[in-house]
Amino acid sequence: MQPVDPATLYSLPQVVGVARLAPYLAAQGGDAAEAVRLYTWNIEASAALLGAYAALEVGLRNAIHDQLSVCFGRPDWWHAAPLTIPDLDQIAEAETYLTQRRGAGTWGEGHVVAELKTSFWEGLLVNRYHAALWEKGLDRAFPNYTGRRADLRLRMERLRLLRNRAAHHEPIHARDLTVDHRYMCELAGFVSADLEMWIMSHSRLPGVIAGRSDTVAGARPSRF
Known about the structure:
By secondary structure, this protein is mainly alpha-helical. Helices cover 66% and strands 0% of the residues. It has one domain.
């Protein structure tokens, strides 16, 4: 089915919500048709961003997990690493959840890795873990990175917060998404050139960004 111009769906503003559309209406100078199209484009851009981020997130957490497994000589490295109580609590919550959902003895370290939030992995790069984790070998999870650990963590935080906005249906149209996409690709490249190429060659986000003006004008249909 071909996409219908959302500006012709006259009840859509009420369905979406006047308050939710307000930022889009303001961005388009009060043009209601353009506002609804921009809202639709925002959904499309968010979906494309989440796809690229999904590939990045899996690559990041696996690289960190693999390297810390080497550093501490065991796949459940979190039971040997000097983690803080809050971080250990996140591990315990993941393990408890897996036992309740899957049953004792039916899950492994990979399941724990998948259950932990992105903020957990980002948190392993904070200052308090510099000597205990980063200098111990965590830096080797990013073999193509030569900068400061703190700058790497800030880049991870920026992209995580953007991902959260997209996942919670918030506006991302005012951001420079081209820069955000470049940051995602560069961060992937710090881990693996192949991970970077995978994201660069599969991500729909650059095309969505390029089509924004035509979408808002009604000349390009958007899909999400």
